[in-house]
Amino acid sequence: MPAFQTVRGMRDLLGKDAQIFSNTLAKAQETAFLFGFKEVFTPHVEHLDLLSAKTGDEIRQRMFIFEDLGKRQVALRPEFTASIARLVTSALKNEPKPLKLFSTGTVYRYDEPQKGRYREFWQSNFELIGSDKPEADTEIILLTNKFLQTLGLQNYVFKIGHIGVIKGILSHDGVDEKTQNAILQRMDKKEYDLALKLIDSEKCRTTLQSLINIKSKDWHDTVKQLSVLVAEYEKAKVAVENLAEVITLITSSAEISLNVEPAFARGLEYYTGIIFEVYIPQLEIAIGGGGRYDRLIEAFGGEATAAVGCAHGIDRVVIALQTQNTEYLTNVKLGVMVIPVAESLKVDALKIAQMLRDCGVSVEFELMGRKMGKALEDADKRGLEYAIIVGERELKEGCVVVKDLKKREQTTLLITELVEKLR
Description:
Layout: H1 15-34, E1 38-39, E2 45-47, H2 48-52, H3 57-61, E3 65-67, E4 73-76, H4 81-88, E5 99-108, E6 120-129, H5 134-151, E7 157-162, H6 163-172, H7 177-188, H8 192-197, H9 202-213, H10 219-229, H11 234-253, E8 258-260, E9 274-279, E10 288-292, H12 296-299, E11 307-313, H13 314-324, H14 327-330, E12 336-340, H15 346-358, E13 363-365, H16 372-381, E14 386-390, H17 392-396, E15 399-404, E16 409-414, H18 415-422
Parallel strand pairs: 1-5, 7-8, 12-13, 12-14
Antiparallel strand pairs: 2-4, 3-4, 5-6, 6-11, 7-9, 9-10, 10-11, 14-15, 15-16
Helix pairs in contact: 1-5, 1-13, 5-11, 6-11, 10-11
């Protein structure tokens, strides 16, 4: 019988890869704490009606949908925001605002597997519910910046736009919501010619084409050109003013590299304001993104509630870290191996292992009864940093032999100095 393989688009994470993922998720959790976000856990499976209510057509078509034993249509979550909206309209509806909610876990989309794109992938998700102020948009972007900065990622760039500018132009010229969503889906894929063909009004097409043509590396200049272009479009004009205010707050608060792209759109239908994505030069895929969605909570039966959020693709963040070979990766600690040289020294060796664990050192104990050479070879294969060799002669002097498995060097240390050395 052939060995089982993982389902296409799914994967196992082992050893150092698993440790890097775990550490990266821990950094997301630390960032959540720094910004006052509270962790929540939501189910992997939700009612199909909930998940498909305001997501884009493309994601609807890529959901894992099935019928449960009760004949109900359910699906694996393709993202977190719909689940959070459900919480806000139910269990958290009486909680004081703003709500700042944080989640991590796997989400599922039936995409074509390729680098950085899997059918099961990890996200860290942040939602700030209840504030319509530009400070809230700013905080979500500063949070993302802090997370990536903490990981040591270099040269990442924020791409920022405002969906309200595009929607303001389309609404002014009478384009219905369904057509607007179709236009935005094509703009998200940079299929601008196809997007423009969906517009009947020549004036609207011309204005949108002019918006697409705005290219400037200076955000002040981009905003100025936008202001002139939408002078007759009241809603779009307000959106440009909001965009300028948010960017001013961001750039005044932190050193962030950003590009303003007026024709930038994202695939989810619920966005109403600021939208953004983050890239590094070496990858063409976004490693994170988000935006404002002021009407989503209302769509799920709650009160009209302002909201802004973001998600970070942990798989892609790890690929970015590996691409840049950041110091963060080399700082992943996989611990030490404690090896007694004889059966009679097992108890003493176990005591040393426990002492190290009590001090926060990750310890593996030689459990297979191997000879010294084989035990050291095994520790090296496991990627451990040190071998702690417990010998009878050294033990009488209160010492152990510490072998650096990376440098191929060893020294004798007092047991009382061991923890400090390993730290």
